[in-house]
Design a protein that fits this description.
Oligomer: single chain
Mean pLDDT: 86
Helix content: over 70%
Strand content: under 5%
Distance between the termini: 19 Å
Number of helices: 11
Structural class: mainly alpha
Shape: elongated
Low-confidence stretches: none
Order of helices and strands: HHHHHHHHHHH
Amino acid sequence: MKLVTRAPQLLALGVVALVPFLALAWKLGVPTDLASAKGSVRTIWLLTPLVWFAQLALAGAAAAALDGRSTARGFARAVVPCGLAIVAIACGLVALAVPGFILIVLFALTGAVATDDAGSAFADSTARVRGQLARVAIVVGVALVVDAAIIYVAQRLVLAIPAKPTADQLATFVMFRRIVALALVVVTPVVAGALATVARAARR
């Protein structure tokens, strides 16, 4: 219930967290040819770490809402540890996909458990995940699948990429990017709320 009553705040903070993604989705122009059109789609996929960051960091606001604290402060103090978590996860994914996914799970609660001591968030997240490993893995897995499904479904439904696309067909790539961005704005608070709920349960 607390998350429902704070939903407008979480949605607003979700927009703030996704500003880099939203800015790129809106500012990238209309592709001029097939190559740039495909590059536009590839860019959206490559920006998914920004979405993960937003969802992890917004979990700090959701956790604060559950505890009756300031959502803005909860979000603010989650930003740095979550940024570091994304860097660590990215390094793991570059090294090998499996360790990368393990790091995503282990650091999934970083934002939800963040305090003024940013360095303790990783250890606290890892400790809580170990107590709720299956549950956290399911939440993370579902979140990743939903994020990817939003992009994939929008790509399949909105885009048409013939060998020689017309100007109107190229213009649909702008619509594609914006649909994806707006859908992720809606989904991000839901993912954050799920992560915060799991983190709270693991604390007991």
